[in-house]
Amino acid sequence: YSYYIVRFVSFVDLALILTNKVLRLGLREKDCKAEIIKNNEWIKNTNIKTALEKLEDVVKPFREPRNFHVHRGRVPPIYQIFDSELYDSLTVISLAKASKPDFLDKSDIEILDLAYEMEMKQVVSKLQDNHEKLVEAIIVLFSELFEKYVEYSKLLHQLGK
Asked: What's the burial of 55, exposed, middle or buried (CB within 10 Å: 0-12/13-18/19+)?
C-alpha cells in the first residue's frame, strides 16, 4: 500500500502543475506549490481554487504517511492509516502463531483467517471510497479548468482580432 499512498498524494502535485500549464501561469514546475497557485490573481476567486482545496482535503489523510515513507523510509502500519485496531490485534496474534505454531488450534486459526478476511474487506472498502472521492475531485477540477480555459481562449482570440 506504500505505492498507493505515494501515487494518491502525487495527484495534488500533478493537479497544481496541470493548473499552471492550462492557465499559463508561467511558473516552473518546482514552483507549483499549493499556496502559490491558489493565491494567484487568476485563480484565488474562482471555483478552481475550491476544486484544488477539495482535492487537498481528499488527499490530506495520506500526506503524512507518504512523507514518512518518501523522506524517512518508513511506512506507517496500514492499521494506523485506516484506524483499524482489529487489524493490529490480528497481526500480533499471527506473529505469535508464527513463532509458536501450536499457539492456536485449527478452529482458532480458521477464526483468525476469517477475521483477517473481514478486516481486509473493510480496508479495501475504505481504499475504494478514497479512490472514488479522488476521482470525483479530479473530475470537478478538470471541469473547472476546462471552463476557465475556454473563457480565456475566447478572450485571447478576441484580442487577436
From this structure: buried
